[in-house]
Amino acid sequence: MAVSESVHGMWSSRLMFILAAAGSAVGLGNIWRFPYLAGENGGGIFVLVYLGCIFVIGIPIMSAEILLGRSGRQSPINTMRELTAMSGANPFWQIVGWMGAIAGFMILSFYAVIAGWAISYIFQMGSGAFTGADAEFANSAFTSFTGNVWSVVGWHGLFMVMTIVIAARGVGKGLEIAVKYLMPALFVLLVVLVIYAAATTGHFMEGVSFLFSLNTEKFSWGAVLTAMGQAFFTLSLGMGAIMAYGAYMPKDASILGTATTIALLDTGVALMSGLVIFPLVFANGLESSAGPGLMFITLPIAFGQMEGGEIFGVIFFLLVTFAAITSSISLVEPAVAWIVEKAKISRAMGAVTVGGFAWLVGLGSAFSTNIWADVTIVGGMTFFYTMDYVSNNIMLPVGGVLIALFAGWILDKKIIEDQMPGRTTMFSLWRFLIRFVAPAAVSLVFVMTFI
Ligand code: TRP
After folding, report:
1. pLDDT tens digits for 276-296?
2. Whole-number mean pLDDT of the chain?
3. Is 241 close to ligand 1, i.e. is its CB under 6 Å away?
4. What predicted TM-score, i.e. pTM, was given to this entire model?
5. Any ligand 1 atom below 6 A from CB of 21
6. Would you say 109 and 434 are in contact if contact means Cβ atoms under 8 Å apart?
7. The CATH number of domain 14-450, selected from 2.30.30, 1.10.287, 1.10.4160, 3.40.1110
8. How far is the CA of 357 from the centre of ligand 1 (A)?
9. What residue ranges in 22-172 does DSSP mark as E strands?
10. CA of 327 to the centre of ligand 1 (A)
11. How far apart are CA 58 and CA 37, in angstroms?
12. What is the pLDDT of residue 285?
């Protein structure tokens, strides 16, 4: 039946798969997006809905993606094609692979731009430009940096080149080596920053209470949709990234246990990032609801006011950059693998093609803070916001539901048996969540938000 190895290579162990998938999951979504969304949506209640989505929808769908990937052992597009045929299902289901590829380019288009900003901020923090900075200074530094089309496009390009280089080197020599070093480094940096925030700000508990106390006044279905979209985004679900990584996973590792571990790591990093950022924000009397600028405007002010802020500022943006790289390589992997299978070209050529195209699409987002700042696509949103909103709040949940329905109702039982041996309680719970709860929950949120 299923092949035991992928032509693209394999992770050398279960631990390496966990590091790679956690590397995909932990990214700008945790450090940049989660804190600012929690800030905009009133803290505790948002966090609670988000955590609920992680456990009820996220972990089951992540398991389903790994299951599908490991059964097909190819790019998501070809995996879906093969599994659809093997299960005697309607070719419609192949849409999962194609829609995922489109969502991947959309996400990368803004992801790489923000990652580029972060790289630039490593140098800006290191130069001491923010020492003693006040809000006005940090605001104008951010506006003039993002307003300069050449610098934004340049850093965006540099980030894409780094992504391409790692992707081109392949699964064993590229992706695995990157995550093997960057993930532990990231974890150490994060722990250092949490200790710093706890020890020096004197406002640590305020951060804790902001994240965990329920303020029901802020409840809205729009915020629930945002929390659900964030759960998909932060776990890299709904577009085939985890499916692609699952294709390289050793057969002997348990899917449900591994998915749970990855989700817990990811959630831990998001909460820790909140515990770094909010104490800094409150200690300096800044606004928690500052939006996407929270990390780039508010934090530099905080670092500028603090003892050793320059060094910790550099550490912080290094952390963000590492996290972004181990995620972006998973965003290009599905398309790179597909091109290699389809066109029979080298991985290097595949990576350059995909990365180059993603960079081109990303120009739309890079221009959204300068020459296209006034160009809006839908609902008054810039290209940047449109890509973020449509991919995270719509395409990922839709892709995720299709994956859930396919794995729960369509996929040949023999394949599931082969990939998930043993009929444990955990398995029954998964089967129930994936067949009924996850599709119903996502549909409910869509209906309540859009109708
Ligand atoms: N999960 C990553 C983050 O939180 C982003 C990411 C990587 C992603 N690969 C993905 C999001 C695939 C959706 C789909 O930053």
Report:
1. 999 988 988 888 888 888 889
2. 93
3. yes
4. 0.95
5. no
6. no
7. 1.10.4160
8. 18
9. none
10. 6
11. 18
12. 86
